[in-house]
UniProtKB/TrEMBL annotation:
Pathway: Lipid metabolism; fatty acid biosynthesis. It comes from Artemisia annua. The chain crosses the membrane at residues 309-330. Its EC number is 2.3.1.41. It comes from the Eukaryota. CDD domains: KAS_I_II. GO terms for molecular function: 3-oxoacyl-[acyl-carrier-protein] synthase activity. Belongs to the thiolase-like superfamily. Beta-ketoacyl-ACP synthases family. Keywords: Acyltransferase, Fatty acid biosynthesis, Fatty acid metabolism, Lipid biosynthesis, Lipid metabolism, Membrane, Transferase, Transmembrane, Transmembrane helix. Residues 32-484 form the Ketosynthase family 3 (KS3) domain. One of its GO terms (biological process) is fatty acid biosynthetic process. This is 3-oxoacyl-[acyl-carrier-protein] synthase, mitochondrial. One of its GO terms (cellular component) is mitochondrion.
Length: 485
């Protein structure tokens, strides 16, 4: 045996032993930092901007209309293919962002014409527009390097730009792959919404993009809050965005039997959460962005504070899926830890998310004044969520003291943007003292009785705490709890 090798090995073992016996000091303690909302921005089917959207929402107006061939964004296909595709769609209603140059409309040229225009898909432009409004509302467009380093972005999406994928696949079929844009990949990546917002303002804090289906917007906001709480940033631009009104997205949901088909001739009646005549959701698009800020940072600069984000709860047991497949007219498909085609009938996933948000907030269920439900207008999902609310809030709900509604009756289901837009509605409910209504609730589900009933008209009331739910396909639920300071 080589004695020199043996001696070196023994010395190495002693060094390792000494290092193992020496423990590290505990990591530094970070005191809990409180997070507040200081800015809001929205692009929705009710209009472009927070004020336009909110006014139309509480008045009971609808952003849902009939689909047209032009809405399918198939300009690269011949007229016959476009007409055939449109005819094959079983659902011909959608919640589409109004575009134009009039007040309250989304001006496409303002957000698609820039030095980065070739890499900006529509879902990215919606995020840029909403983020711009939110930052201006917060009066936070920093120029100092230190401030930029402590400002981050957390904006996610559910699908991305499926229209670009459809166009690219056509090039392959036509053997014209050399015509594929070099910006194809940057246009379809979900994280590019957050990326473009960061690049526009020079933010160098955390850059994050959640992709959790219909819970995306809520998860993006909750994750951003935790980044502030942990000290990674003082300010976070957070929310969700979606632009899924295109031929392939709609066709996919139609084939899954997820969308409403009974109201093609009366589009504004199609999205009817909690109503007995609901038959599927209405696909929508838009973006919602909030500026979240550490409380002392906001106070120091004299920021306008809308509300405090006190609780963020998550669970991994899906209440309802983005995809709703009707089996024999009564079943529906979910992807969760319980069963591939059925959620837990007691709404356990929703209860876990809501109760964890409550626990983190330090509030009791009877201190919550309003719940913005996820209810998408699907047969089983709405009923199960209603049961979850009734179970968790108990007497507070059945006595009528708890106001709740689903605003998807007015704006449809914005998929990856839904959780963010509805979180903003919850914040505005606190700020303005108005709980928005559930549109099209004419024949309530039998689970409702007496005082336990969703709002059928917007209600003026004092709202000190509001809970916003967002549940997504793939085993993800999120709940955000906002409250007055």
């Amino acid at each position: 045996m080589n004695r020199g090798w043996w001696s070196k090995s023994r010395k190495a073992c002693r060094v390792i032993h000494r290092s193992m016996s020496t423990s590290f000091n505990a990591p530094p303690f970070f005191p809990q930092r409180r997070v507040v909302v200081t800015g809001l921005g929205m692009v929705t089917p009710l209009g472009c901007g927070v004020e336009t959207t909110w006014k139309r929402l509480i008045k009971g107006e609808s952003g849902i209309r009939a689909l047209s061939v032009e809405d399918l964004k198939m300009s690269g296909f011949d007229k016959d293919t476009q007409s055939y595709t449109f005819d094959q769609l079983t659902s011909k209603v959608a919640a589409i962002v109004p575009c134009g140059t009039n007040p309250g409309e989304f001006n496409e040229q303002s957000w698609l014409d820039s030095k980065h225009s070739k890499s900006i898909a529509r879902f990215i432009s919606y995020a840029l527009c909403a983020a711009d409004e939110a930052l201006r509302d917060a009066n936070w467009i920093p120029s100092e390097q230190e401030d930029k380093e402590k400002t981050g972005v957390s904006i996610g999406g559910g699908i991305g730009s499926i229209g670009d994928i459809l166009d690219a696949s056509q090039l392959i079929c036509e053997k014209r792959l050399r015509r594929l844009s070099p910006f194809f990949v940057p246009r379809i990546l979900i994280n590019m919404a957050a990326g473009h917002v960061s690049m526009k303002y020079g933010f160098q804090g955390p850059n994050h993009a959640a992709v959790t289906a219909c819970a995306t917007g809520a998860n993006s906001i909750g994750d951003a809050a935790r980044m502030i709480q942990f000290g990674d940033a003082d300010v976070m631009v957070a929310g969700g965005t979606e632009a899924s009104i295109d031929a392939l997205s709609i066709a996919g949901f139609c084939r899954s039997r997820a969308l409403s088909t009974k109201y093609n001739s009366t589009p504004q009646e199609a999205s009817r959460p909690f109503d007995c005549d609901r038959d599927g959701f209405v696909i929508g698009e838009g973006a919602g962005v909030l500026v979240l800020e550490e409380l002392e940072h906001a106070k120091k600069r004299g920021a306008n504070i809308y509300a405090e984000l006190r609780g963020y709860g998550m669970s991994g047991l899906t209440l309802l899926s983005l995809v709703f497949i009707f089996l024999g007219g009564v079943g529906c498909a979910f992807c969760d830890a319980h069963h591939i085609t059925q959620p837990h009938a007691d709404g356990r996933g929703a209860i876990l998310a809501m109760s964890r948000a409550l626990k983190q907030s330090g509030l009791s269920p009877d201190q919550v004044d309003y719940v913005n439900a996820h209810a998408t207008s699907t047969p089983l999902g709405d009923m199960v969520e209603a049961l979850a609310i009734k179970t968790l809030f108990s007497d507070h709900a059945t006595s009528g003291a708890l106001a709740f509604s689903s605003t998807k009756g007015a704006i449809g289901h914005l998929l990856g943007a839904a959780g963010a837009v509805e979180a903003i509605f919850s914040v505005l409910a606190i700020r303005n003292g108005i709980a928005p209504l559930s549109l099209n609730l004419c024949n309530p589900d039998p689970i409702f009785e007496k005082a336990f009933m969703p709002l059928v008209a917007s209600k003026e009331m004092q709202i000190k705490a509001a809970l916003s739910n967002a549940f997504g396909f793939g085993g993800t639920n999120a709940a955000l709890l906002f409250a007055t300071l």
